[in-house]
Amino acid sequence: MGWGDAPLTDTEWIPFRNEHAETVPAYGAMVFNGGYVTAGGIVCIKATRTRSPEYYGTNFCYPLLINGPSDVASGAYGRCTIASNRPTLALCTTRGSDSAGNRFGPIPDTWTLGIGLPGFRQVSWSTAGGDADEIGDSTHVVVMRDPDAFSYIPAVATTNWDDRSATFWALQADLCAYDGSTRSPQINVSVELPYYASGGHPNIVSGAELFVALIQSDGAVSGGWVCVSPYMDAAIGTVRATIKTTAPTGWAIMDGTANGAGNGGSGTDMRGYFPVGYKSGDSDFGSWLGTGGDRTHVHDSGTGTTFGTTGTDYTEDSHLPPYRSLNFIERLDNSE
What we know:
Strand order of the largest sheet: 1-3-2-4-5
Structural class: mainly beta
Strand content: 35-45%
Helix content: under 10%
Number of domains: 3
């Protein structure tokens, strides 16, 4: 008895009609297309080739299907499974590591599953030998539906964060297939960043790695893909001292250029300056981001004698207090 019989005979089969223009290959990944038809008194769901989860929104986790052991032509009828209680074979792009437990999910606009994507969990591989000879290659994986597959997914930001509203921020990111060492961008989605009234701001720029999860609306967000890895940082405009010679992502050395207005900063140059508290109305410290003070004093002696010198100016030695030079950095506005 081969793979085409035993592991599939006990699977809960669902009649379907192929709504796509292409033939569904045996064990191909599909998605529920909405609606149903009847054929010979049997209710059949409509199924088609997979698409991006962005297209299906929060329902992406529900309508994933795997075709049975036979090709199904366009407009023809077949049987499929959601593999919730029994394992099934499925087409895949690569074996990855030869171990159970890997996550597999549909690659958009294909009939195959990709490793590291959400939807199913690997039970074992279809390898050469025994009943698996009926498959005869390593492009199939034995999977079952994974109810926890959408807990978190690695992703890479494709935009900087965007200030959308008073309740959430957002950005675009690519969901990644992840084999344990390499992230391979696969599916571009919108990701929400739930708003925190903490006085801080998000600090995610294009290329940043993060983790996201697919959730239903809970009042705090509208539902969909949500960032679950840390993304909050100090409020825009925060100034800190550092002994580092470079600034971290989202910050800039306050040299007046790196933190310029075009980079989301104030343009304030702190090189060679001590900070002092602003005081409204004060003749010295009442100008916001103003500068002042001198390193030395020059005394005009006039015609008298001052410090032993007659009729000439006298310049004192430096009266700087003991100091140590370091960098000031500014938190930039790196939103879109």
